[in-house]
Amino acid sequence: MAYQILLIDDDRELAALVIEFLSPQGYQLTHAEDGELGLRMARAQHYDLILLDVMMPKLDGFDVLRQLRPAVLTPVLMLTARGDDLDRILGLEMGADDYLPKPFNPRELAARIKALLRREALLTQAHSQRVLNSPSVSLDPGRQFVSCANQPVVLTGTEFATLQLLMQRAGTLVSKEDISEQVLGRKLAAFDRSIDMHISNLRKKLSDIQDAELIRTVRGASYLFLESVQ
Questions:
Q1: Sign of CA dihedral 20, 80, 90, 219
Q2: Using CA atoms, how far apart are residues 182 and 162, in angstroms rounded to an integer?
Q3: Does 147 share its domain with 64?
Q4: Is 148 in the same domain as 38?
Q5: Residue pLDDT tens, the chain, 230 long
Q6: Domain CATH number, residue 14
Q7: Within this chain, do residues 14 and 115 fall inside the same structural domain, yes or no?
């Protein structure tokens, strides 16, 4: 069965090119020409992935994402203006899984989509993986469920996979490069702050429940889960 992708972008010409390129690769794309329509469609049915442009009429990509999260946790790949770091950071802060600057190479878009879908497939097939428990946090791969201090924590797929990797390697430094390759399925580019933002989101969601340091940044390039994990 083909993967279902929702493309929310007001650029009809670009949308037609994306659909023409991706359709032969086994993807079924549905196009929404503005953010308002895209939001309704994303809420109305399940999609495997959402491609979300930032600059659109009626509702921009940030408004769409703000109203989607956390009720809809479908992976979101933001399409941002090249060089606009603020858009990328804001999108990641609001729960986007990854971003791709415009104009982009269609092959790079296909690679990003493939990596996110592969990660989601691994998460849904994780029933045989053991539950990870620390004194504060419990992570169940089979149910894709996380709790902190016995309270549920709602995480995006990227946040969940990042926390799982850190807990699997508790007490060991995990580099940004490792997280990018293991979680996002791509090498970390220079000046790429996506991992920093996902870690920041994780910290906030955990600290909102328990005000204690669980994830430490070491020399700005690696992360350490501080509690022991069984």
A1: positive
A2: 8
A3: no
A4: no
A5: 689 999 999 999 999 999 999 999 999 999 999 999 999 999 999 999 999 999 998 899 999 999 999 899 999 999 988 667 788 889 999 999 999 999 999 999 999 999 999 988 887 776 557 899 999 999 999 888 999 999 999 999 999 999 999 999 999 999 999 999 999 999 988 888 899 999 999 999 999 998 889 999 998 889 999 999 99
A6: 3.40.50.2300
A7: yes
